[in-house]
Prior knowledge:
Oligomer: single chain
Strand order of the largest sheet: 4-5-7-6
Structural class: alpha+beta
Amino acid sequence: MKSDFKDFIVISFIFYYFVNSLCRTPVQPAARCLVLKDYTIILSSATKTFNIESTKNSFAIIENKDLRKRFVRRQLANHQHEISTVGLLATEAAFFYGKPWLKKLKSILEQNITYVVDYLSAHTKIEVMRPEGTYLVWLDFSVYGLRHDEIQKILYEEARVVLNDGLSFGKEGRYHARFNAATPLETVKEACERIAIAFRQA
């Protein structure tokens, strides 16, 4: 049986506009989700959402008992069965007591992301990809017909913003950059304005 691995490190950041379609797309209706659990391993952690990366803790959700046993056997063989006590306690605290904080945070992030999408779509030709479950927004500059290094140079030298270089994620990231919207809205606004001004003349 082939297993389906899903990395849901940012599952807690799934936003309101995506959550209802998570298991209800035309190719993956709700009934299919019940079948998927038989061969799916979900890997996740509270570290990204609650900014507790230093606690070094994660978890796996495996509904299929046989698959879970195989997973545990592999963990033991790889000596990966021990976890950080601090990580366990931090994860427990985050999930038990962090919901009000997370709800407020998601509201702020949704506002920031919506601003990035709306502003850059209105003032540039950049294709802005609204994220489904993270605060990282992908920007596609390919319509400008510039070389990848020229795009990066304009961002860095003219707009004076430092975004993640798309090529650092693989060849598919050519002509792309990644915008981190997890920052105060005023900073997001200033960054968007700088990008728009720089690419107006590109």
